[in-house]
Amino acid sequence: MIEAMSQKLSREPIAIIGMGCRFPKSPDPATFEQLLVNGVDAITEVPAKRWSVAQFYHQDPQTPGKMNTRWGGFLEQVAEFDPAFFNISPRKHLASILNNA
Predict the structure, then answer these.
(1) Please, is 43 exposed, middle or buried when counting C-beta atoms within 10 Å of its C-beta (0-12, 13-18, 19+)?
(2) For residue 12, is it within any domain?
(3) Is residue 25 part of a domain?
(4) For residue 71, what pLDDT is reported?
(5) What is the pLDDT of residues 21-61, one digit of tens each?
């Protein structure tokens, strides 16, 4: 029965009517495609506006409370994120901001 349903469903035409995404150095699908086509590396040093590398970085990965990298993939305009759209509570949203600041 499941196989019959699967075959029937797979024959139904579909239409993709929209797409959206945001990645480091890519605010939209077209820019992301060009980034991939051109082999652009979207990893950068931690932006000063995100957090203090001097405060949190240490080259020794065993150092408690520190990270051992200065690099990451960072989205621009993160303040535009709409937590309500994704059904994320204000409390969880605030916690995620504090954990990723």
Answers:
(1) exposed
(2) no
(3) yes
(4) 94
(5) 889 999 999 999 999 999 999 999 998 888 888 899 999 99
